Amino acid sequence: MEKLQRWDIQGFQEELLQWYCENKRDLPWRREKDPYKIWVSEIMLQQTKVDTVIPYYERFMNAFPTIEALANADEETVLKTWEGLGYYSRARNLHQAVKEVKENYGGAVPDNKEDIHNLRGVGPYTAGAILSIAFNIPAPAVDGNVMRVLSRLFLVYDDIMKGATRKIFEGIVEEIISEDAPSDFNQAIMELGALICTPRSPACLLCPVQRHCLAREEGVQEQLPVKKKKTAPQLKRMKAVVLVNHVGQVLIEQRQETGLLAKMWQFPNVEAGTEDHSDLTVELRNGGLLVNIEADIAQHVRHVFTHLIWEIDVYRGTITMVENEALFQQSRLKLVEPENVDWYPFPVSHQKIIDKLLKGAALT
DNA sequence: GAACCGTGGTC
DNA sequence: TGACCAAGGTT
What are the distances in angstroms from CA A108 to CA A29, A39, A353? Predict the structure, then answer.
């Protein structure tokens, strides 16, 4: 990289590390360098802000303090602990990967790139993050922060939404990373991205490495990084129903094994089809139940996902009879006491419905 | 590659 | 309020 020829690497490292030493945030996972704790924190921090993660991290580490504890937990409990944090495959992948570490590595997180990367849910960024932060090995850990900071420092105009672009930045990191303090170096770049070199209105006047920044020199820091816009999420109209039987039990349903909100629980729902609710009743009859839809609880409950918007009309009704016990047993439906609904992991979209029913909260 | 996967905060 | 953003990985 030509731009690195006259670029003061040593001065950059010293100024960056000095700033990090003086300004780094006191975060729960920075208190000790337990590879398991670093690992859990890095998975939670994927696409998620520090302030959001902290309470989940505390709760999760309290429930599963060690690899052994998490490996021995059942998946339902793991999902329940993750409830509300989103991207639930992260939790299931982490659970599976921890079991692999227990089985194949005697319960010790491996300390080489290949083995770490082969763990479920650990991609190139997280592998580099664990290697550098937990084991102090000089490996690049390129996330959105790093790409933003480096695109400005070195005037990189490649679209960071493209997968291939990450490799460009990994190459730069390999050139400029501190061999003496790779853990602090990687964290310092990310911390700089989070606190100073922000997406909008970066605080260049406060930046400890502003004299090294080519974007600032040309006044184009606000134009970087280049990032292609995502396509707008598509609206999907849904119907959900809260059904009660003659002894007051509530019907809930576990979602499919893969895809959106996999293995999470919900109230039975379908994509809105017919006006007369046969869309719902036919679906439930496939689960062996005869039901009667009686009234609407709420309309247009919106929930926005990354690539999808649900607009849910919520109804209530009763289970007339269990028409086919065998079908019901084979289905993913389950009758539970209302006070026990809380035992099951529900996504936020359905927590909104629970809040409406149980606590009378406003639906938005 | 590009689409799929959640949620909450900010401007 | 809508669009954007956040310590990405899997398919």
Answer: 18, 12, 42
Name the CATH code of domain A2-223 (choices 3.40.228.10, 1.10.340.30, 3.40.50.1450, 1.25.40.620).
Answer: 1.10.340.30
| pTM of the entire predicted model | 0.95
| Dihedral, CA of residue A190, residue A191, residue A196 and residue A202, to nearest 10 | 20
Please report, rounded to whole angstroms, the spatial distance between the CA atom of protein residue A47 and the C1' atom of nucleotide B6: 9
Nearest amino-acid residue to C11, taking CA and C1' = A259
**Dist CA A186 CA A194 (whole Å):** 13
Protein-covered nucleotides on strand C (Cβ within 7 A) = 3-10
Strand partners, A239: A270, A313
Looking up tokens 């664990």, which residue turns up?
A: A130
The residue extents of the domains of chain A are 2-223, 234-359
Contact between A242 and A297 under an 8 Å Cβ cutoff? The reply is yes
C1’ B11 / CA A199, Å: 12
> How do the pLDDT tens digits run along chain A, 364 residues long?
566 678 899 999 999 999 999 999 999 999 999 999 999 999 999 999 999 999 999 999 999 999 999 999 999 999 999 999 999 999 999 999 999 999 999 999 999 999 999 999 999 999 999 999 999 999 999 999 999 999 999 999 999 999 899 999 999 999 999 999 999 999 999 999 999 999 999 999 999 999 999 999 999 999 999 998 888 899 999 999 999 999 999 999 999 999 999 999 999 999 998 889 999 999 999 999 999 999 999 899 999 999 999 999 999 999 999 999 999 999 999 999 999 999 999 999 998 777 767 555 443 3
Specify the CATH class of A234-359 in words: alpha beta
Query: In 3D, which of A134, A139, A104, A97 has the Cα closest to residue A119?
Result: A97
Nucleotides of chain B in contact with protein CB (under 7 A) are 1-9, 11
